[in-house]
Amino acid sequence: MFGLVRGCYLARRIGSPGSLKGHGLQNHCVTNQSAVGRGILKLADAMLLNDRLVAEIAAAGGRVDDVFVCPHAPSEACACRKPNPGLIIKAAARHSLDLEKSILVGDALTDLQAGRNAGVGQNILVRTGRGATQLALPEASQMAPFPVFDCLSDVVNFLYPALL
Hints:
Largest sheet: 3 strands, parallel
Strand order of the largest sheet: 5-6-7
Helix content: 25-40%
Number of helices: 7
Number of strands: 7
Shape: globular
Structural class: alpha/beta
Radius of gyration: 15 Å
Distance between the termini: 23 Å
Strand content: 15-25%
Number of domains: 2
């Protein structure tokens, strides 16, 4: 089972995100997959990995409504690679999301920067995955303050305690 894929978050209490749908909340994954742009992985294989992640989340009682992938290498300077807001804006357009009322949870400073660049109302860092290492970077202290949680289930429990 996946523990965490960069840009997509799967907590140990994997069912928590699934309980949000009945309350009008959506779950979307926005992920940089530079291995495709660097020729390490084919786009079709990256999509299969994402499909597997979504299936495993669903099998455990959670869900992901949509996955948005940036396949470009960092050197390509595309608009969709985080910290650029392109994929978040695409998700908002496709799913009629109000970004000012949305929440982005990421394990990298570039995730938070992308959220801020897109106008996401609340951007949260989790320590899982790369989060703890990212939090220790000098750039983290230079950014505007942001909430930090140990994992996604802690975020869900904090934001939506009545739902669980």
